[in-house]
Specification:
By secondary structure, this protein is an alpha/beta fold. The protein has 2 domains: about 15-100 and about 110-240, 3-Layer(aba) Sandwich (Aspartate Aminotransferase, domain 2), CATH 3.40.640; about 245-365, Aspartate Aminotransferase, domain 1. About 35% of the residues lie in helices and about 15% in strands. The protein contains 12 helices and 17 strands. Strand 3, helix 4 (about 85-90) and strand 4 (about 95-100) form a beta-alpha-beta unit. It starts with a strand and ends with a helix. It binds ligand T4K.
Length: about 375
């Protein structure tokens, strides 16, 4: 019998490559606190993304929390609810008030046409999400931010390695957070990084992520512990060497899904752009019950019967979480709500067999 199929399966490098780094850790006894491998990994990330100011942290969530604190924001932050819990939590845990902006049907990213209506004199920033690695409309967001003097911090957890018009996606906004969690297209076990536009923001983020310690006898900020350790950095260094080959494997799987599913009535796919180099992290499909005959939950069940575990990323939307539903946070979320009730993200990872992709597509085609 074939093994159970999950939405993703972490990539692991050949073990001997990781062991080489482990030997170095054993020799140095340097386990954490911005050690040699951390520094090497940081340098490799900067080269890979073609950026000047970057640093790895313990995970994507803490990276986002730290950079929001470093930018010293206050008041309201416009974001989308169609995302993982992390985005809204990072805002709220910084004592900021999220204001939920709706998303575009075409790509599930923040709708630039709806941002300005939500801006008040309390708004200080926009936190858009490159959800599923679909790039936001970075140009229009920049124009709006400039017009209203707002910071832009991208939740780019899903977008590592992507390019827009030949330019690294890390170049947009005042800062971007990338996640290197085990389930991502590139992992450092747990981990993430922050890229900033200016030097002072990366310095403050750096200080904050190590308790706000500024010198041997000085602590200037109320920081936290968000340090990436040497074992994580080692995994990141190994996996970065395999990122291109993995992208090619994912692309093949993604294209098979597109080829097979684009003509299935009632199954909608997002609009992919010619000018974007995608990392193919996710395969979201949207089930329109009226056209398709059965709903998203039924499809989820049909697949689960075959031990294929697709996921409802992202359902429920953040504004419907128990911890937020009575919070009174403002916003317009009509499309986000509908899309979260229709979405199913299908399995994709480098060693997923095309026969399994075909099996999944058969289920979606035949509804059985
Ligand atoms: N912003 C956005 C937009 C995000 O999506 C995320 C994280 C963040 C911020 C925060 O970044 P991090 O702090 O996580 O770096 C998973 C991931 O844990 C999370 O990183 C990710 N987004 C989110 C979309 O997905 P769960 O709770 O769905 O994960 P879990 O444990 O159910 O894993 C999914 C499947 O992956 C499992 O069914 C089996 C497989 N799996 C998972 C792990 C951890 C494995 O085969 N091996 C493993 O080790 O959140």
């Amino acid at each position: 019998m074939r093994e159970d199929i999950f939405v993703t399966r972490p990539y692991l490098p050949p073990m001997e490559e990781y062991v080489e780094y482990l030997n170095r850790i054993w020799d140095s006894r340097n386990l954490t606190n911005m050690g040699t491998l951390w520094q090497e990994f940081n340098k490799s990330l900067m080269d890979f993304m073609d950026v000047e100011y970057c640093m790895p942290l313990s995970n994507g969530h803490m990276a986002l929390e730290m950079v929001l604190q470093a930018l010293d924001l206050s008041g309201e932050v416009i974001t989308t609810p169609f995302t993982f819990a992390s985005t809204t939590h990072a805002i709220v845990r910084n004592n900021l008030t999220p204001v939920f902006c709706d998303i575009r049907e075409s790509d599930c990213t923040i709708d630039p046409d709806k941002i300005e209506d939500l801006i008040t004199d309390k708004t200080t920033a926009i936190v858009p999400v490159h959800v599923y690695g679909m790039p936001c409309d970075v140009k229009r967001i920049e124009e709006i931010a400039n017009r209203h003097n707002l910071k832009v911090i991208y939740d780019a957890a899903h977008a590592f390695g992507e390019k827009i018009n030949g330019k690294s996606i890390a170049h947009f906004g005042d800062a971007s957070m990338f996640s290197f969690h085990a389930t991502k297209c590139f992992n450092s076990i747990e981990g993430g990084c922050i890229v900033t536009k200016d030097k002072s923001s990366i310095i403050t983020t750096y200080l904050l992520h190590n308790f706000g310690i500024t010198g041997k006898e000085s602590v200037d900020y109320i920081g936290a512990n968000a340090k990436m350790n040497e074992f994580q950095a080692a995994m990141g260094l190994c996996n970065l060497k395999h990122i291109d080959e993995n992208r090619i494997l994912r692309k093949k799987i993604f294209e098979r899904y597109m080829e097979r599913l684009s003509s299935v009535e009632g199954i909608r796919l997002l609009d992919y752009r010619e000018d974007v180099i995608y990392n193919y992290s996710y395969v979201p499909v949207f089930v329109d019950e009226a056209e398709y005959g059965i709903d998203r939950n039924d499809v989820h069940e049909l697949l689960a019967k075959r031990h294929i575990y697709a996921r409802k990323y992202f359902y429920p939307i953040a504004s419907k979480f128990n911890c937020y539903k009575d919070s009174g946070f403002r916003g317009n979320v009509e499309i986000a709500e509908r899309m979260s009730e229709q979405v199913l993200t299908l399995p994709i990872y480098p060693d997923l067999q095309l026969e399994v992709v075909d099996e999944i597509c058969d289920v979606l085609e035949k509804k059985e």
